[in-house]
């Protein structure tokens, strides 16, 4: 028979259900698991796919005659910039290839904005009375902690399936000049898997803002990280903004952290030519050039933009079964009971689960007690504060499939126990 929502159960049936969940949870704790579903890291099998890098580069001179062993070339070597310009739908002149972390580039950009102001700023952001950022939630915890570290205020808007709630965003930016920017993970967002549609991107690119130097920090960390054959194409935010008369509004970030090596990839920044010049001008005060040898190694390893896409198909073969497993278990264990909803992402690294209001922290604590480490409840919200205490982020890529199975089964047990406690209490 079809599962019945727990709220439909009689008092006696609910008591019996609670007792059954308590027994299941006791068994789970007794089984002595030691599992971790916290961080979105590639599994070793995924890293192995890129081990061809270890035998590269062949030669040390790039296609344009640059000796990559030497100083210089702050913007990165031309062939890797060309390759990712094509992949990200921008011009080569609009792309910087940097070090191994796009998050570092995001911090640099915010530092430059605070200390110097952007190309379209009236003054440094630090000279403003107040700086506020719009944070679509749930979102990426490191975006939020970065803002907190700068003392930048946050205001949240809902992250919908098609991207941030544009009506809420447009209303916020229209009248308040302290609102200087918004974080967006446009493709397969962390953690919801949302993909920003062309319509949403157009609205964000063209909306009137009280701040003349409003920034869209477009973090396309998962641009090519498809989990199905239906490959989402990221909206071309730079062209849209340019066409709307706001060429300096978006600054785009991407990296090969989850394409090749998470700790030794290549990161990218893209923006208007003026933005690129602005960024490099500041970068040049502290660097003479990036690790061009690693960039050359990556250019040779991929061979072409298609090489990147082909590589991601091999990545998908390793991780898609893990996402399928999470969905199958949640559907079988929780489906129809009215205790949780969850995303079925078509790309990216996460599954976002909403349990009943007020239960996320309880579920995470129960899981911890049972040896299953989950991302702390609230992590996907600024200041770690999920006002409804309901969101839990699952990251199934790193563990082996058997561990994903055990951890998700255990998680489902914790969700059921917490829900039964709440409803019976
Ligand atoms: N942005 C998002 C949305 C991420 O999820 C991550 C990794 N968890 C990063 C950026 C980090 O990127 P990088 O490794 O290039 O610093």
TrEMBL record:
<dbReference type="Pfam" id="PF12897">
    <property type="entry name" value="Asp_aminotransf"/>
</dbReference>
<keyword id="KW-0032">Aminotransferase</keyword>
<dbReference type="InterPro" id="IPR024551">
    <property type="entry name" value="AspAT_Ic"/>
</dbReference>
<keyword id="KW-0808">Transferase</keyword>
<protein>
    <submittedName>
        <fullName>Aminotransferase class I/II-fold pyridoxal phosphate-dependent enzyme</fullName>
    </submittedName>
</protein>
<dbReference type="InterPro" id="IPR015424">
    <property type="entry name" value="PyrdxlP-dep_Trfase"/>
</dbReference>
<dbReference type="InterPro" id="IPR015422">
    <property type="entry name" value="PyrdxlP-dep_Trfase_small"/>
</dbReference>
<dbReference type="GO" id="GO:0004069">
    <property type="term" value="F:L-aspartate:2-oxoglutarate aminotransferase activity"/>
</dbReference>
<dbReference type="InterPro" id="IPR015421">
    <property type="entry name" value="PyrdxlP-dep_Trfase_major"/>
</dbReference>
């Amino acid at each position: 028979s079809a599962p019945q929502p727990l709220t439909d159960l009689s008092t006696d049936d609910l008591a019996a259900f609670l007792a059954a969940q308590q027994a299941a949870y006791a068994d789970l704790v007794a089984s002595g698991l030691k599992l971790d579903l916290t961080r979105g890291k590639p599994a070793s099998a995924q890293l192995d796919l890129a081990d061809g890098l270890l035998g590269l580069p062949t030669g040390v001179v790039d296609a344009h005659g640059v000796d990559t062993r030497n100083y210089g070339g702050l913007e990165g070597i031309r062939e890797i910039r060309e390759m990712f310009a094509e992949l990200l739908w921008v011009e080569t002149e609009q792309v910087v290839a940097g070090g191994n972390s796009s998050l570092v580039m995001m911090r640099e950009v915010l530092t430059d904005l605070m200390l110097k102001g952007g190309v379209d700023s009236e003054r440094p952001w630090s000279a403003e009375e107040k700086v506020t950022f719009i944070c679509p939630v749930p979102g990426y915890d490191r975006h939020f902690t970065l803002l907190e570290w700068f003392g930048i205020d946050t205001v949240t808007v809902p992250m919908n399936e098609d991207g941030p709630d544009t009506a809420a965003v447009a209303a916020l930016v229209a009248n308040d000049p302290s609102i200087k920017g918004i974080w967006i993970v446009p493709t397969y967002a962390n953690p919801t898997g949302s993909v920003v549609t062309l319509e949403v991107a157009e609205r964000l690119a063209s909306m009137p803002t009280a701040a003349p130097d409003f920034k869209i920090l477009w973090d396309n960390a998962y641009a090519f990280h498809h989990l199905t054959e239906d490959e989402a194409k990221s909206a071309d935010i730079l062209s849209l903004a340019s066409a709307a008369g706001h060429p300096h509004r978006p600054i785009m970030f991407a990296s090969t952290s989850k394409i090749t090596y998470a700790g030794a990839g290549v990161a990218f920044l893209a923006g208007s030519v003026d933005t690129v010049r602005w960024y490099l001008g500041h970068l040049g005060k502290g660097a003479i050039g990036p690790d061009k040898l690693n960039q050359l190694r990556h250019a040779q390893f991929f061979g072409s933009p298609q090489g990147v896409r082909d590589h991601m198909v091999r990545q998908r073969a390793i991780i898609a079964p893990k996402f399928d497993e999470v969905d199958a278990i949640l559907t079988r264990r929780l489906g129809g009971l009215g205790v949780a909803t969850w995303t079925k992402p078509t790309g990216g690294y996460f599954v976002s689960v909403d349990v009943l209001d007020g239960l996320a922290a309880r579920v995470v604590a129960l899981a911890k007690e049972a040896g299953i480490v989950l991302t702390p409840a609230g992590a996907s919200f600024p200041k770690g504060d999920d006002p409804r205490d309901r969101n839990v982020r699952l990251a199934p890529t790193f563990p082996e499939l058997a561990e994903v199975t055990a951890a998700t089964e255990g998680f489902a047990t914790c969700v059921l126990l917490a829900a039964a406690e709440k409803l019976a209490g």
